[in-house]
Amino acid sequence: MADDIYPVPAEWARDALVDAAGHADQYRSSLDRADAYWLEQAGRLDWVTPPTRACESSFDEADFAIRWFGDGVLNVSANCLDRHLAERADAIALIWEPDDPAEAPRIFTYAELHAEVCRFANVLKQAGARRGDRITLYLPMIPEAAFAMLACARIGAIHSIVFGGFSPDALAGRITDCDSTIVVTADEGRRGGKRVPLKANVDAALDQSFSVKKVIVLRATGGAVPFDPARDIWYDEAAAKVSADCAPEPMNAEDPLFILYTSGSTGKPKGVLHTTGGYLLWASLTHQFVFDYRPGEVFWCSADIGWVTGHSYIVYGPLANGATTLMFEGVPTWPDASRVWRIVERHRVATLFTAPTLLRSLMKEGDDAVLVADRASLRLLGTVGEPINPEAWRWYHDVVGEGRCPIVDTWWQTETGGAMITPLPGAIDLKPGSATKPFFGVEPQIVDADGKILEGATEGNLVIARSWPGQMRTVWGDHERFFQTYFSTYRGKYFTGDGCRRDEDGYYWITGRVDDVINVSGHRMGTAEVESALVLHPKVAEAAVVGFPHDIKGQGIYAYVTLNAGEESSEPLRKELRDWVRTEIGPIATPDAIQFAPGLPKTRSGKIMRRILRKIAEGDVSSLGDTSTLADPSVVDDLVANRN
Ligand code: 6R9
Questions:
Q1: Which atom belonging to ligand 1 lies closest to the Cα atom of 510?
Q2: Are 278 and 212 contained in the same domain?
Q3: Which of 55, 43, 121 is nearest to 285 (CA)?
Q4: Which ligand 1 atom is at minimum distance from the Cα of 512?
Q5: In this structure, are 485 and 416 located in the same domain?
Q6: Which of 22, 81, 188, 302 has its CA 20 to 30 Å from the CA of residue 453?
Q7: By alpha-carbon position, which residue is closest to atom 16 of ligand 1?
Q8: Does residue 493 share a domain with residue 346?
Q9: Which residues line ligand 1 (CB under 6 A)?
Q10: Residue range 448-506, pLDDT digits in tens
Q11: How many CB atoms lie within 10 A of CB 243?
């Protein structure tokens, strides 16, 4: 069957920043004369000392390094704020839409945002923060979260944002891993009319992590929270005493900007490190061209700032480009299923960038929930986080976008800093479900299990063959793990962990993770993390976790649990284990299904055969493949008979 193709609309071909010919030209130039091309692109940033060198990366073990613009000096917050003041001081930088739609939005011009960030930076300094220190941010989606990020960047401190939905244990692990000395949090968060006990979670986390000297607490709800005057600082009281002037610290392009923990296939979450120059260039360049951004337009990325999408497309990319960025505190289905579209109407949103899981959950509410809101301001739609099923794509295109708005399906990762395979709306015809073509400077390849490069229309594992400026630089504290995780599977190439198909038109179709990472509602979850949480429970002997297809979430979490001898399986225990994982990691890790299993299918060498567990979880029990190599093939019959 021929693919469904949505050609570039005529007005986009005519008016977009980049058309098809421009795309082809720039793409070629970005690969053929890479260093010159990237030094030119670097000119879009404001440098204290402009770089004279571009790429100095090598993916080979002998001289392994990821390095860009190594002699350049700049400050990220100056690029996001100060340099816009001459011409755009009164332009709107940030629009904040509160959880409760009855409350007024808060709006900040570039001049106001600049003052807020400088003040925040001075509060951090007064709390003892110095250049290079790690500062953990555990915050709700309030403007102060953006102030805090930019304030860290301003003084050269490294922020590590921990998603507000993570548990105290998960938070503690992330604080300890990078030895944060300061935590910034709020009394409570608000989501869908409910309160999230952020400060209480921080207190619990700090019972087990001892590097933290000061906790800065924002008053977000005014709720009563425990307060330790020796350690805790109310932000508003401290901010009233400091000035709104703070000179930006000149940073080397390769100085760290932030750490962001993400799940991998093994072990504990990795601290992905991004640095100053290359990351900002990538966030800014992709934001402008992927979204065809025009000054004055309202850009809304609906991600949480606790994920990389929020870092790059709520804060750094848009603000580097002098854009108006919208931040939403609440949940998209509260108070009702029209909330997202009401926000589009209220703030005249031009670009909406969201996740397929949200679209699927809103789609099932029916079209009327969309149609009640005026969406004439929308010009462009975007998705990220997981493959989008063509049905959701068409609904987004036809119903949400009234058939007018192109959709940019952007494939990328925490590790890549920004979009990597993505349409440019004026240049590339769309195929629902395909992330289409590589962005400038990105050289994707599809390889087989042995690393052989597959040409033409094919399917295999996705690797990137050369360095790009937004690439992560290391795993915090474990450079060896960085090399092993990403560069040892296929020598000389960055391995993404994703499977991918390329069609006869050279379009890329991401088929999902090929490692033990599952993608639940666009959030990455390592099966090993959920397993470790389960086996911490005193009644659990062993656990194996796999993903299975889920209508709304994309993938759900299916856990096989073997209890200790003498323990009885029961419904209350099933619930207890679900709650246990929620408490250990956070709600996003809650298993959708738990199957009690007297035994797990293992090879004679003791390796769990996940392939079989996946098939059973998917309900595909007719093709379990060869089970003869199992130590005890009869366990499979029991698993099949007792599927959830
Ligand atoms: C930005 C972000 C990365 C993983 C990635 C892939 C999946 C992201 C996608 C997509 C298909 C897309 N993914 N975007 N799959 N189409 N447009 O999501 O980062 O949280 O690190 O997740 O998400 O599997 O490897 P992160």
A1: 11
A2: no
A3: 43
A4: 24
A5: yes
A6: 22
A7: 387
A8: yes
A9: 262, 307-309, 384-387, 409-414, 435, 496-498, 510, 513, 519, 524
A10: 999 999 999 999 999 999 999 999 999 999 999 999 999 999 999 999 999 999 999 99
A11: 9
